[in-house]
Amino acid sequence: MAALPLGVEARFLDPSPDATARALGELIVGELGDERALERVTAGVDVATYEWEGVPAAGARFVEARVPVRPAPVALEVAQDRLVEKQTFARLGIPVAPFAAIDGPDDVTRAVEQVGLPARLKTRRGGYDGKGQQLVRTVDDARDAWQKLGGVPLIAEADVAFDRELSVLAARGVDGTTACYPLVENEHAHGILRVSRAPAPQVEHARQAEAESIATRLLDDLDYVGVLAVELFECGGSLLANEVAPRVHNSGHWTIEGAVTSQFEQHLRAVLGWPLGDASARGVAAMVNCVGALPDPADVLAVPGAHLHDYEKKPRRGRKVGHVTVVADDDDTLTERVARVRALQHDDG
């Protein structure tokens, strides 16, 4: 949608013939790693990009041999393996919680003793919205978790008693210039992001600078082009990196109405080699996910400053089917408006 007013034509690849992108350009139906489908979708294009970190890295490498792929496939390879991701953070001097690899059942005891208990065991690959992980409080819990998580390679991470969850979104252009959005405060429930608020309340300049430094180190190390998000924990006045997402991000949806340049336009500007836009916030904003089902549009639009985005997805418990951006001039007004929107939600899981 961000491409249309810029005069940019897009062609899409999606496994589903019902993908909503079909309304915006030519849709190629096929698996994301299918080479024939990839050849069709990239024929004659100037640049290829992706909006999901689950895109097969091998498929992105296949495309890269034919047309520029931005961000580069190495970003997928890092983000798709939680161990490699944490090792990348550590190599760049980005603070992370203690972690250890679990390659087999004999590694479980050593790993949890190394990181300490309680700990979170996570599958190295796959998993989102709280899936593919389990909190363990004893070594016996950890051994059980190894089986419950499928007996696949895992990563053990110390369970972090954080003060709040934050994220930083940043963009890097072909020429290496960067632009960072204000820190975002995120609220999760049942492993699903419910509300993102920007700029995050009570953020000191030093904290914003720290987050931008984390994002910039990753952008430069990966020679990244496009928008990237880093999920963070704020712990006692410092930041720990949790995950990186090489794409436009759910916690950045507030930028559509709440920033001078939306994350989606920013991503296009970057991958096309155009100047990056202003990443400043316009007042204060929040994004409220619609989980399970959409509220009545008339009810949403009765809230001042509310903007409904329908993803045209079939309702399903625990599924993000849309979001509401709420904008305001001050924090108190935003809080009141967000509460009104949240009261319209139906799904609790």
Task: Write up what this structure looks like.
The protein has 349 residues and is α+β, with helices and mostly antiparallel strands. The protein has 3 domains: 4-78, Rossmann fold (3-Layer(aba) Sandwich), CATH 3.40.50.20; 98-158, Dna Ligase, domain 1; 164-342, ATP-grasp fold, B domain (D-amino Acid Aminotransferase, Chain A, domain 1, 2-Layer Sandwich), CATH 3.30.470. 28% of the residues lie in helices and 26% in strands. The protein has 11 helices and 15 strands. Strands 7, 8, 9, 10, 11, 12, 13, 14 and 15 form a 9-stranded antiparallel sheet that branches. A 4-stranded antiparallel sheet has the order 3-6-4-5, sandwiched between helices. The protein has a two-stranded parallel ribbon with strand order 1-2. Strand 11 (226-235) and strand 12 form a beta hairpin. Helix 5 crosses helix 6 (139-148). The radius of gyration is 20 Å and the shape is globular.
